[in-house]
Amino acid sequence: MADFNFTPYDSSILILAGIPNLEDAHIWISIPFFMVYIMALLGNITVLFVVGKEQTLHKPMYLLLCMLALADIGTSTSFVPKALCIFWFNLTSITVKGCLTQMFFFHAFSTMHSAVLVTMAIDRYVAICNPLRYATILSNARIAKLGLLGMIRAVLFILPMPLLVSRQPLCVNRIIPHTYCDHIAVAKVLCGDNTGSRMYGLVLAFLVIGFDVTLIGLSYGLIIRTVLRLSSQEANQKALNTCTAHICALLMAYPVGLFSTLAHRYGEDIALHVHVILSNFHYLIPPMLNPIIYGVKTKELRDKVVKNICRMHSPHATDFKPE
Known about the structure:
Order of helices and strands: EHHHEHHHHEHHHHHH
Strand content: under 5%
Structural class: mainly alpha
Shape: globular
Low-confidence stretches: 1-11, 318-323
Distance between the termini: 57 Å
Largest sheet: 3 strands, mixed
Radius of gyration: 22 Å
Number of strands: 3
Mean pLDDT: 87
Strand order of the largest sheet: 2-1-3
């Protein structure tokens, strides 16, 4: 794990309170948390396993699905286990070093998730607008390079967050009313001048979301223009169907995420437990639904998943082709 250069407050303990005002219901809240998390893990691991095993799926589109699965697993795993420890065992304490490490990985994986969605939009643009050149424009090697670029961007953008927080002294009240070390929640327990840290988080949120949404919007604008030029209604429908799963992923990622970011900073009239629940499920629901959506909408992936499940249930069965 990353080893940050922390201040003398390293040995201090912070308290993650869980969901404020709903402490008595933690055990009940943990049930959907646990179920959604397990479903997310199973779904995304299945995608990784099937794509890795099936040679016919070693294509840019499925490589992107694997990147999305890894980002989803990383984002949810960076905070759900600790949240479950709070709900089940009341293990609310966390060291400053542990808190800042969790903050880094959580925000880095969520930033990588956004980068993958942008790359997927570019993939759909090339597939629809330049289908004959698709293989040369987006090879597996190029997709891998774009994924590496997204990872480097996430590390460079997110690393200053814990570093800025670690430079400020902690208040006497070190209770964080959250289930994980979200940047803005941790910044609120700092007693020094944390304006720089809070402004960096806000500017970064708008910079990443704004840049990524702009690229996605540009891609879809060009896609729509190309689709409208197609003479066949059937061709129009087929082209748009290839984008359905990605559009669903976008709708789950950006609108709720932007609302949660703004509400957490400026929504004083919104109950605190609503902030926390909304933030948690915003990062829990997409990892669970993405594999389902892509599995349903992508016939080739769906067929390979069913094929592997049948093999697991009948390991000695051989393919039978009737004459």
